[in-house]
Structure of Aminoacetone oxidase family FAD-binding enzyme:
Amino acid sequence: MSKERKRIIVVGAGAAGMLAAIYAARNGHEVLLLEKNDKAGKKLYITGKGRCNITNACEMEDLFKNVMSNPKFLYGAFYGYSNYDVIDFFEQLGLKTKIERGGRVFPESDKSSDVIGVLLKELKRLQVDIRYQCEVEQILTEDSAVKGVLIKKTQEKLSADNVIVATGGLSYPSTGSTGDGYRFAKSMGHTVTKLSPSLVPMNMKEIELVKELQGLSLKNIEITVTSQNKVIYSEFGELLFTHFGISGPVILSASSYLVPYMGQKDLTLSIDLKPALTKEQLDARILRDFDEFKNKQYKNALDQLLPRKMIQVIIALSKIDPEKKVNLITKEERKRLVDTLKAMTLSIDRLRDYNEAVITKGGITVKEINPSTMESRLISGVYYIGEVLDLDALTGGFNLQIAWSTAYLAGNSV
């Protein structure tokens, strides 16, 4: 039996909004998609450095492990619309995909515009009415049920049987993510948890040191973040030195764990530059290099061990005279060099702001949302999906998976 045809309004034409509109239209509903920008998918366009990491081809268990906030709430969403369902959906729309290191799934073309392109083509095929530069001021309700939306510019009231809110969070506000959904939710009596930028670079206190290393990318390193001698996060990966501090995949993931600890004065980041070697193995390796370069000065004997840009910094941190011949370096000095390479320690000053944050941590509390449908438990006919909810995950396509899965549920539940 087919569903009764309803009028559905979707607020926000990002990843979640477009997918929800597609599934609502596939179910035979009349769908109106409202977007305050002049085009759809502005944030989707810049994800994955413009390549759009659409999901992650990992096992279901790992999907949940990579969700930082409220993973249990996503049980129905992930099993209802898995990462492989997402891949199939795009493949069926004609978008070829590929799987890269760490299970990251990208369009074969490496172009996020192709992801947006196939979504828009499907919306057009389904005759979804998309209105751009159409900002919603308020969700209209009566007797704890949705009635429609109020358009800001024209003050026009648009009626709807159901409204799906897909307005995103606060991250990358230039893409239109300015917290509208939180405002709508609060006005309807919803609770919004503390909001913070997450998956974001970090400022370091040793500003002169990081400036010296600006632009240097280090692969296969291990970082450990501690506070009051407690390990908060430890992981292998890749990082990038910037003019203000450190960025890169492993740093963005670390930031997700750091939000509750910001403000503590002794937040430190230790970088193991040679995680594949024990201290003893690294010392033996250094001895071999020093033997080969026995007549060279210390400052000229580290080329095989370190990237050129890093040599001066490590020399300074190891407190060994750069002019000293390596055959005169003592065992104690060599130990200092090993310790420096295994734990180059910096002090975290702060996390960067929403302008550089991939996602927003916090959002509409999930206790007030039905996990089987994404419908509000407070106002019937209102559905919340994607980043506006108190759901966030690590890098690697997991946040987009949350968007797709919650959107699918809402689109099929209206």
